[in-house]
Amino acid sequence: FAIVEALIPVVGPVPPATVLNSRLVLDTVGVPIEVLRSIVGLAMAIGVVRSLELFEQETDRRLAEARRRELLASERDRIGRDLHDGIVQSIYAAGLQLEAVASHVGERITGPAAEELEVGGRVVMGELNRISGEIRRTIFDLRSAGLDTRDPERLVAEVADELRAHGLLEISLRVDGPWRVELTDAQADELRHIVREALSNVLRHAGAQRVALTLRLAADEMTLEVRDDGIGFDVAAVEATDNDAAQGLRNLRRRAELLGARLVTRSAPGRGTRLSLTMPVAASRREP
Q1: What is the Cα–Cα distance from 2 to 5, expressed in whole angstroms?
Q2: pLDDT tens figures, 47-87
Q3: DSSP code string of 61-93
Q4: Which of 69, 83, 126, 260 has the highest CB neighbour number within 10 Å of its CB?
Q5: Cα–Cα dist 48/162, whole Å
Q6: Are 266 and 245 in contact (CB under 8 A)?
Q7: Exposed (0-12), middle (13-18) or buried (19+): which is 244, by Cβ within 10 Å?
Q8: Is the pTM of this model over 0.70?
Q9: pLDDT digits (tens, 9 = 90+) for 128-156
Q10: How many CA atoms lie within 13 A of 173 on its CB side?
């Protein structure tokens, strides 16, 4: 439009109007310059309208995706509440009733039958506690799966808060570094899985009471450290097996490889475990 409007003027005494002008266009193409301007203007209008339609379609798609994620998170939260307020409480009540019955019957029964009753009661109580723990971990996985953020500080804090809210572990979080990091969608997704897997491993295997999370932010990399006060283990011996703990470590290593990150696990029997993940990131300085 700039060419046909500004660079092709009407005939005039000053160059370039004496050479390139509307009369030359009419003589060459047989179409008045005004018609060409109208055609180009119409094409511009169609392009603008089409661009707005594409923008509106993309906006609708993103709104629909946001609503879908919101509904999914709401459904996860509902299922978690139902599990916690319904099944877990029922199991707890059943355990109390079992203890009361065992105590009442134990006063009337002696000998081998009493011993069998005591052993059986302990087995059942242990199984109820195990099931209750599994359900609580499922609630944690459901709720932490619904998190949607690319800020590593918020991501780690929200996953930790979900676990802390159920009183399963005492968790602290410290953030070091004057940098602000925004992860890509792929990095955020993998980091979320790594944090969840690391804390789940602590729940299942460490027998820990406290976990310290440390997030160190630098200009081109980020380090997440997960340290617990659990029973610890021989890293080489566990990795050589094929049990659940070894599978958890392998899952962490595979996810770290997808991030181009370095994963180091240090542990020893009776000395807890420290897991360190260092990954490349893009960062900007925080405003003072």
Answers
A1: 5
A2: 999 999 988 888 888 788 767 766 766 666 667 666 656 66
A3: HHHHHHHHHHHHHHHHHHHHHHIIIIIIHHHHH
A4: 83
A5: 47
A6: no
A7: exposed
A8: no
A9: 777 766 666 666 565 555 555 678 888 88
A10: 18
